[in-house]
Design brief:
There is one protein chain. The chain is 27% helix and 40% strand. The chain is α+β, with helices and mostly antiparallel strands and 167 residues long. The chain has a single domain, classed as 3-Layer(aba) Sandwich (Aminopeptidase). The strands form 2 sheets. A 7-stranded mixed sheet has the order 3-4-5-6-7-9-8, with helices on both faces. The longest helix has 15 residues.
Length: 167
């Protein structure tokens, strides 16, 4: 069942907790790094999170009570948004929270009059690619050797979603 366009029903909530999406602040950086390390083999460095917050990128967290469970970071310029990172801690995955964060991001940048949102996803991350494809993103290209992958590099799939203006 769809709750609203692009957001799947949230499942697995035996305790019926409801998430809060809020702006991230510098005191969240330690938890962001914890989530990033738990979810990715090649996590962002702490300094990247600090820089994103310092320069004013749109940084939002998914919170349950006092537990920050995920986040999304994006920026926009020239009528186009760029989703830089969307991550849900593995303990909170498979419940629709990635879709919730994605939809929040899309709606936020649509209100900023962005015409499209682009992102890169690792070629080796089919679950993330499926999340974006299911929401309507289209593959528009590839970036060879875009991501760190140990001693090697990994290609990125580039995706784009055309946006409608949200009142």
């Amino acid at each position: 069942m769809q709750l609203w366009p692009g957001v799947c029903q949230l499942t697995g909530l035996a305790d019926k907790q409801h998430p809060l999406i809020r702006r991230l602040v510098l005191t969240d950086v330690d938890r962001l790094c914890d989530i990033e390390r738990a979810a990715y083999p090649f996590p962002w460095a702490r300094e990247i999170f600090v820089d994103c917050l310092r320069v004013g990128y749109a940084c939002f967290g998914l919170q349950f009570d006092r537990d920050l469970a995920g986040y999304t970071i994006f920026t926009w310029a020239g009528g186009e948004a760029h989703l830089l990172n969307l991550c849900v801690h593995p303990d909170w995955q498979h419940r629709g929270y990635g879709s919730l964060l994605l939809e929040y991001s899309i709606n936020h940048v649509a209100r900023l009059e962005s015409k499209a949102i682009i992102l890169e996803v690792r070629k080796s991350n089919p679950r993330a690619a499926a999340l974006y494809l299911n929401r309507g993103f289209k593959v528009i290209g590839h970036r060879p050797s875009y991501y760190q992958a140990g001693d090697k590099r990994e290609d990125a799939i580039v995706m784009r979603l055309e946006l409608r203006r949200v009142p």
